[in-house]
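Exam revision sheet. Question 4 asks you to relate a sequence to its structure. Input first:
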Amino acid sequence: MIQNHNRLLYFLLHSPFQKMPSLEEIKAPIASVMDDFERRFRDSMRSSVPLLDRITHYIVKRKGKQMRPMFVFFSAGLCGGIKDVTYRAAALIELLHTATLVHDDVVDDSNERRGFFSINALWKNKIAVLVGDYLLSKGLLLSVNNNDHHLLKIVSEAVRIMSEGELLQIEKARKLDIKEEVYYEIIRQKTASLIASCCACGAASSGAPAELVSKMHQFGEDIGMAFQIKDDLFDYGPDGIIGKPTGIDIKESKMTLPLIYVLGKASKADKRKMINIVKNHNTDNKKVKEVIAFVKANGGIEYAEKKMNEYKEKAYALLETTDDNIYKKSLHDLVQYTIDRTH
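Answer key, structure tokens:
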């Protein structure tokens, strides 16, 4: 009977005839949990200063897909159950991550975030920096006041790694000659470390043993790697289908996997020409399209997709070693969603 159940679950997870569910359908098992989390998260951002309340209200109103809290809750459900501390784990990650985004927009002098005006665009840099500091302190106090030191350690480590990744990218971007192994290290630090902390915090909040927390951390890291490579691929898709304009990474002189791969096997002349465009002519749409065409013609897209799927399969393999329950299928579908998403 157990064998039949396992075969059925495997079929449900891997059948090619399964239609990929929407994000709302994936979220269904934790829909009420997410509603409760949103209320708690709003409460955790409250202040006695009216200006701060207006700004934090603006932040909450323009929230994204909320995939990070979903990874926290699904991981907790998979590893032992969603508890009160799980809500704090999700809030901690959202508070600290939002703080880093607010600060990033100041550093990058960016006027937009997810299609809305950034905090610094509306309230100027000084207020934006102070808001970021406020959110950081709220996250720290949320953990310290509830003795969630194990969660604070996981997330603080992720923030440290993310900062190192940003600095590593800045250092390497000056020459625009990033090797593939350095690229993987940058995205592991910048992107994958946060998703890894989501899954690890979810597991830890459920009371899971250290071995399982470590396994979920690796699971999240593999998803994060696949997620970022998917983001790289958006740069080479047709406008209107994806979530950002084609060539935006090239225009910002960012070295992504499809480009790194083709430059690694290009002739010296072609390599010199492409790097020159990215470095000195990245505002020329015609030349940017030339780089995109070069990447497509030389197998850059196929190679990046292959690497993305390798990380996805590594995540699936780790998931297969965990006990079966409804959250396991939800995590499986959420991984697939990160690969299939169009924005």
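Marking note for examiners. The longest helix spans residues 119-145.
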